[in-house]
Design brief:
Strands 1-2 form a two-stranded antiparallel sheet. It is built from five helices and two strands; from the N terminus they run ααβααβα. With 123 residues, it is mainly alpha-helical. The chain is 65% helix and 5% strand. α3 packs antiparallel against α4. The protein starts with a helix and ends with a helix.
Length: 123
């Protein structure tokens, strides 16, 4: 059941307030508004995963290891593609120390922030 317009506005206000109050927690919860699930990625990924399962079963039936391994790889690639998130804005990472032309993963950004905090002597 979709949210009403009023409920959507309230939810957006709550998310904005959470980002302002505790940005670390908000980022760890994955509520980044710039990243979203892509229906196209999910559909293509599920179709690839099903094709991979089919290839895997054909490989087992024919007792052909190459076809079975190929099916497993296609299946894994489909699952990976289905779970990818696309960025709406296409902008680079928002981290303060990030270079303008280079995108960084959130894991690496958090490690770099922790390293900088240790070097400054902050807890």
């Amino acid at each position: 059941m979709p949210l009403s317009e009023h409920e959507q506005k309230l939810l957006e206000q709550l998310e904005k307030q959470l980002h302002e109050d505790d940005p670390k927690f908000a980022n760890s919860m994955g509520s980044d508004p710039g990243r979203s699930w892509s229906t196209r990625h999910v559909v293509i990924g599920v179709l690839c995963a099903l094709a991979g399962v089919f290839l895997l079963l054909v490989g087992v039936t024919l007792q052909n290891i190459f076809v079975g391994v190929l099916g497993f790889v296609v299946m894994g690639g489909g699952v990976y593609f289905a779970t990818m998130r696309s960025s709406r804005g296409g902008s680079a990472a928002k981290g303060g120390g990030a270079k303008p032309g280079k995108q960084r993963s959130s894991f690496m950004s958090s490690l770099e922030e922790r390293w900088d905090e240790r070097r400054r002597g902050e807890p």
